[in-house]
Amino acid sequence: MALQIRNLLKCGNLINESMKFFPRSIVMSSLRKNTTADEGKTQETKPPPVGGDKSSDFDIDNLNKKIVELSEKNDELLDKYKRALADGENLRQRLVKQISDAKIFGVQSLCKDLLDVADVLSKATESVPKEELNEKNPHLKSLYEGLVVTEAQLKNVFKRYGLEHVNPLNEKFDPNYHEALFQQSFEDDQQINNNNNILY
Question: What PANTHER family does this protein map onto (predicted)?
Fold first, then answer.
């Protein structure tokens, strides 16, 4: 109870101190000024009486024409704005497609150039006689192992970019995958008998 009384006294002291800065007469006079100013504003903003005056009809017609002109101009600008947004979006989509195509074609040309390297590596590993790969020729053995590892890594890179190893030997000729170097007649199904290069 004593604590509540102390709090009330503190609040009373704060109110008294604030009244020193804002005396009651100043507050009341400012309130009176605000109410008289509000009354003056309401009197000033009253619309003029509507009558059969020709000048007011002329003003209304002019305003209606102006409204129609502005709404047409607004519609035109809104249409131009929407078209500009659509053009910007189309341009963005075209650029994204061109960038992705450039990446694909860049990788494609690189992989095509690396196919010759893969062919040379495979021929190099095939040309080494297996009998020579022993302890008597450690340099040849390490060179062969290095070539095999390099070829394996190159094949992994090809797989990563979607190139797959295709061995067309003894398969039916498919022009979508195979390239004919010369023509030879067969009695049975057309099969690929000679394969110089492994295809990817």
Answer: GRPE PROTEIN, GRPE PROTEIN HOMOLOG, MITOCHONDRIAL
Query: So what's the pLDDT on residue 89?
Result: 95
Residues 6+ apart with CB under 8 A from 197: 119
Q: What angle do CA 180, 181, 187 make, to 5 degrees?
A: 65
- pLDDT reported for residue 137: 83
- Chain centre distance of CA 184: 54
- The series of mean pLDDT values per 10 residues for the chain, 200 residues long, is 57 56 49 50 50 71 93 95 95 94 83 86 88 84 90 89 78 78 67 53
Gap between the Cα atoms of 187 and 183, Å rounded? 13
Would you tell me the crossing angle of helices 138-160 and 54-127 to the nearest 10 degrees? 160
Residue 27 C-beta-side C-alpha neighbours within 13 Å? 7
Helix (H, G, I), strand (E, B) or coil at 91: helix
Residue 151: partners with Cβ closer than 8 Å, 6 or more residues away: 118, 121, 122, 125
Could you give the CA distance from residue 187 to residue 60 in angstroms, rounded to a whole number? Answer: 98
Q: What burial class does residue 148 get, using C-beta atoms within 10 Å of its C-beta: 0-12 exposed, 13-18 middle, 19+ buried?
A: middle
Q: Residue 31's CB: how many other CB atoms inside 10 A?
A: 10
Provide the pLDDT for residue 97.
94
Q: What is the pTM of this model?
A: 0.43
